[in-house]
Amino acid sequence: MARLTAEFWVGAYLARLRLADIPAFVVARGDATAGAVLVKCNTLDGQAVAFQRRTDLMTGDSVWMELARGDEAAVDAAIGRQRGFDPDLWVIEVEDRAGRHLLGEDGLA
Fold it and tell me: Which InterPro entries does the entry mention (predicted)?
C-alpha cells in the first residue's frame, strides 16, 4: 500500500476541517515527504491537547495518541520539546471551543 506524503495528508486534513467550519492552520512546516505530524487542539479557554500519531504495538495500526493535555503554555512547551528532537515535524493548530479535531474520523489515521 502506498503511503501519503506528509504534505498531502496535511492538506487533506486542513480541507476536511474547513468543510466542518473548524479553523486550523500550520504552525510549523515539516518535511514535505516524510515529516511526522502533531495536532494541537486549542479550546480557546487557556487549555489545549496535543496529539501525535504512533504505531500501536499490538495491532501495527497507526493511532492518534495524546502527547500532552492541560494549560496551553505547557502543551506548547511539550510541542517545542518534540520539535527540538525532530526538526522535520509538522505542527497543526486546530481552534475549536468544543474540542473538535476530527482525528477519529475514517481516513485520518
Answer: DUF1491
